[in-house]
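Treating backbone geometry as a discrete language has practical consequences that deserve illustration. The amino acid sequence and the backbone structure tokens for this protein are reproduced below.
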Amino acid sequence: MKPPTAAQRRIIEAADPQTGRLSGTEAQLMALVRARLAFRHPRPPRAFFLTPAGHRVRDEGAAPAAAPEPAGPAPDSGVFAARTGTETSAPGSEGPPRAREVRGAWEGLVELRRMTNPDGSRDRPCAWERTHLVRAAALALEAAGRSPAAPGREGYRVTDTPQPEAVAVREPSPEGLRACAAALEQAGWQVGEHTGARGGDRYLLASPRRA
């Protein structure tokens, strides 16, 4: 495969870190499609996303000593980030604009599952989700209509755990916790409910389903 040009690399490196969604002119993006570094989503708005080969190009261009990836960019950075409920600042866009962003991100992730799962499954998490557990779980929850916690507002909180391939999800109310469990199971995650040490709060442990 012909190496991407410097201009193509810049487009690839600027792809949405959450979904691999690309921005550029029609001609630039179609050139990436022909190079098998991008694909066009079949449904409106027919956005362009990185293929696994495109993700490899972007990953190879990353600095080996880069700092750990943050939970999400600043609210007004213009880049989509799933909300984990652990953000310390007020959320950015809300209402219909945010709903459209979440829907597009989720559709892109489902298409990435189809492209990268060996059997083309859309209902089972893919490799990207296994390496971005907190973001993937948060996106599944927000796409299902759950609300993340925010300053002055209750909602879900997704955090890392010491366990491999597992995140913790907390929600203040038992009903909310059950709704989060149902949303994650619908998105292809295995979920179990647990009690914190010394009789603490109830929380979920969620892992991407493998089969």
In short: The two ends are 32 Å apart (CA to CA).
